[in-house]
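As agreed, record passed on underneath.
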Amino acid sequence: MKSLIGDLFGKSPFGPIVEHSKKVHECVELLWPLMEALVAENYELIHTYHSKMARLEYEADLIKHDIRSFVAQSYFLPVEKSDLINFLARQEKIADTAQDFSVILTLRQTVMHPSIQDSFFLYLRQVFQVSGTLLTAAVEFKNLAETSFGGAEARSVLQLIEHLGEEEWKTDKMSRQLSRAFFALEGEESVFNILFYEKMLIALGNIANQAENAGDYLRMMIEKG
């Protein structure tokens, strides 16, 4: 890992930033098999995926620490250091929250009510959409930072970031609908299960929120550049 990051840096932190974005998105992608294991009531597999999530989050941390060290020692960057660090911090929260979700699933052997399973996977797919849009924006931002921050290319990335906000809004809307579906189960589902579903929902929503926040810092760096 260390030698890989060293090779990636050269004179720019933007390649490693994309690698960090990819690693964070890997954490998010692992949520799908975690949910599949929950629906299948395969609790041993949940613990296996949780261990894998912890490893991915640690690898993301290594990349983040190297970037922060590089930025701290750099005198000439095309963006403000504070904005770059804040962007990394928001991405880090995405990975942290994905890991928190995996921890939640290990806390108890929850049986998920059949009536909400499909809706929950649709919601998870929407969270993937938000995270994937952020990854695409990070890749395009790298290309932009290594050339210039003006012209059609900059406008294209700004439009992508605006789209990220729209996708996060869709996530919020779906979250409210799903929450209502949870509480509609009161009487046929245990209160503990309903509250557990809500806890899972909040964690996933936080991933989308942090992705939008990270996008806001990309926007600031482009507009200041």
